[in-house]
Amino acid sequence: MRDAVNALAEALNTEDPLKLWSFLVSCLGDVSQDGAVEVSGITLSALVERVGLQPQAMRVALHRLKRDGWVESRRVGRVGYHRLSDNALRRTRAVAARIYGPAAAETEWHLVGLPPDAPDGLALLPDRVSAIAISRSFALVSGPVDDVPEDWLVTAPGARDLPAWVQDIVAKAACESGFAGLEAAVAAIDALPEALPDEQLDRFALRVLVLHGWRRLVLRSNPAAETAIGVGRAEMTCRARVHGLLERLGPVTPEWFQVAS
Q: What is the pTM of this model?
């Protein structure tokens, strides 16, 4: 019988193959929510192997992360220790609420029309305004409308449903199928006779796996598209399921990432 770790790893790989470097960022970010925490290379190797990835490839993945400024490393004898850089910590904290917090409060979306001479105008919007293009000249936005340039057309949504072709664009941008797939995978884990493993390394592996699957979706999903879909969106159901499993697994403690050291 498959255990929870293998079952979830298989489901995530089917949806979108796991990338080792990104998995390591999920791990190091989760253990460093209250400040940078070092994790030994021995522990990371054990974790990587437990989820079915290749420990032999970790050196290349860590080299890439160090080159890109995401990870800092040091050695004590023959053992390497790795942590997120200060810049990486700032970047992970900037999206922590999106990953660990509740679903965003319901806000209104608007249809905006871009001037003919500003086809790439969406790139000029501030970070607090999210947008999803539905054609060359029109987009749906959520966030402070006052931040939209004055020479843009701005209209509030009417009573009519969005046409099917817009719904398709919005559903793709909101990662509806991905969230539904992850929610189903975690629900299947919850249904296993022994959903929560006893071994610390297994619990650590399960936590990082579900968090990684959630993180890569929620950071890809477009908030404006989520707003356009509303309360029935798959992201909300998936968030509740993922957060429920993370709560049952409990927060990361030093014992979890020292188990293999």
A: 0.90
CATH code, 4-103+174-255: 1.10.10.10
DSSP state of 109: E
- DSSP-derived secondary structure letter, 154: E
Q: CA–CA separation, 116 vs 50, rounded Å? A: 54
Please name the residue that has the structure tokens 């989520």: 226
pLDDT digits (tens, 9 = 90+) for 34-78: 888 889 999 999 999 999 999 889 989 999 999 999 999 998 888
Is residue 219 within 8 Å of residue 95, measured between CB atoms? yes
SS3 246: helix
* Ranges of each domain in the chain: 4-103+174-255, 109-156
Closest CA to 65 of 22, 97, 128, 125: 22
Report the pLDDT value the prediction gives residue 256, as an integer from 0 to 100. 61
Cβ contacts of 184 within 8 Å, gap of 6 or more:
none
Tokens of 15: 């949806």
Q: What is the CATH number of domain 109-156?
A: 3.30.70.2670
3-class secondary-structure state, position 221: coil
Query: Is residue 261 predicted with pLDDT exceeding 60?
Result: no
Q: How far apart are CA 149 and CA 124, in angstroms?
A: 9
- What is the chain's mean pLDDT, rounded? 89
